[in-house]
Each structure stands twice: as C-alpha cells, then as structure tokens.
Amino acid sequence: MDDIHRTEVDGIEATWRLHHPLRIGITQVYNTSEGLCLVPFDPGGGLDLADARTRFPKLEMLWDAIRHEFWAEMRGGARER
After folding, report:
1. DSSP run (H or E) holding 71
2. Res. 81: pLDDT tops 50
3. Terminus of the chain with fewer CB atoms < 10 Å: N or C?
4. How far apart are CA 24 and CA 11, in angstroms?
5. Would you put residue 10 in left (φ > 0), alpha (ψ -120 to 50) or beta?
6. Residue 42: φ, ψ to 5°
7. Residue 24 DSSP one-character state
8. Under 8 Å CB-to-CB from 44, ≥6 apart: which residues?
C-alpha cells in the first residue's frame, strides 16, 4: 500500500500517500486556481495527517475530506478481500 491520492476542496488540492502500516502522509498542498504550491512537504514520507491538522488548522475541511476518502477506501478494500 503506497498509493498516491489527490483530494481537492474549494480549489485547494492535497497530494497524499497511503503508507503501510496505515498512515496518511501529506506530500503537497496546492492552490489549483492560482497554480501555487502552498505547503510542500517531504515527498518521501510527507507530514502525517494528524500533524498537518495541528500545523495548518485553517485547512480543516481539506483534512476532513482526506480522512473521509481514506476510510471510504479502507471499507471498500475490506469488501474486496
């Protein structure tokens, strides 16, 4: 499990990876309307979602959307097994 995902909320897109064991690593936050990288992270591991929430609380809606996509994928993957 080392998939790259993209989640967008209100023109702000986060690129994140799903690591094993189950951990979300945020690798980039990008303003799609202005074409700007807002918050670059280490692409190797990224910033854990919980740490991202703490450091960038104004992006709460984006972090919530990532969490939702993560759990939707986990539930879907469990059904496929």
Report:
1. helix 60-80
2. no
3. C
4. 21
5. left
6. -65, 115
7. E
8. none
Cα–Cα distances in angstroms (integers) from residue 16 to residues 1, 80, 81, in the given order: 12, 23, 24
Q: Look-up: residue for tokens 């690798």?
A: 27
Tokens of 34: 């202005």
This prediction has a pTM of 0.83
Rg (the chain; Cα; Å): 12
Q: What's the number of domains the chain is made of?
A: 1
Per-residue model confidence as pLDDT tens digits over 7-41: 999 999 999 988 777 788 898 999 999 999 998 77
- Beta strands in the chain, from DSSP E residues, in sequence order: 3-9, 12-19, 23-31, 36-40, 47-48
Please tell me the distance from the alpha carbon of residue 60 to that of residue 37, in angstroms, as a whole number: 18
Domain encompassing residue 54: 3-77
* CA separation for the pair 53, 48 (Å, rounded): 9
